Amino acid sequence: MIEQNDIDLQQALSLREKGAVLVDARSPAEYAETTIPGVINVPLFDNAERARVGTLYKEQGPASARLLGVDLIAPRIPQMVRAVLDARGESRQPVVVFCWRGGMRSRALVSFLNLAGVPTLQLRGGHKAFRAAVRDFFDQGRWGRLLVLRGLTGVGKTRLLKRLAGEGYPVLDLEELANHRGSAFGSVGLAPQPGQKLSLIHI
Known about the structure:
Blueprint: E1 6-7, H1 9-17, E2 22-24, H2 28-33, E3 40-41, H3 47-60, H4 62-73, H5 77-88, E4 95-98, H6 104-115, E5 120-123, H7 126-140, H8 157-166, H9 174-177, H10 196-200
Parallel strand pairs: 1-5, 2-3, 2-4, 4-5
Helix pairs in contact: 3-4
């Protein structure tokens, strides 16, 4: 059943273009693996808590897992609301919240925020819907003609890409997306490398 405060992915992305804040309610580990670009992470559970709730769900069923979830979340509700308010700033757009499939975690955070007077919507299908849209984009192959720039390390490929980007050409720097400097220097001195899922969604 579709609830009144559910919206689909295209509606969510349209709201983001107008200044809406998108909130990922999943655990920090899930968020680090992949998310929607430009969102903030306000997790209902930390990584260990998510594992505890999941284990209890499998061993004793959903009722026990939900009770544990309430016990874990309740003390942090004000903190979560303030984090979203800080990120929202002066925006007049509703907040959009998602979890993995658009289930209990995002529904709970939507309820907390709405009760606190923050207009909030839930992304129908959650992050899974976004992943499906990314896959469809690549399957359709409608991004136009692609030219691949390749060559030995140190010949100036990155400089050329930056020059082309500066002149308004669409450029995809795979090494930059992967926080990598090529075969000679790798990722030495750079931030941790993102996984394949996180790299693809920035393309």
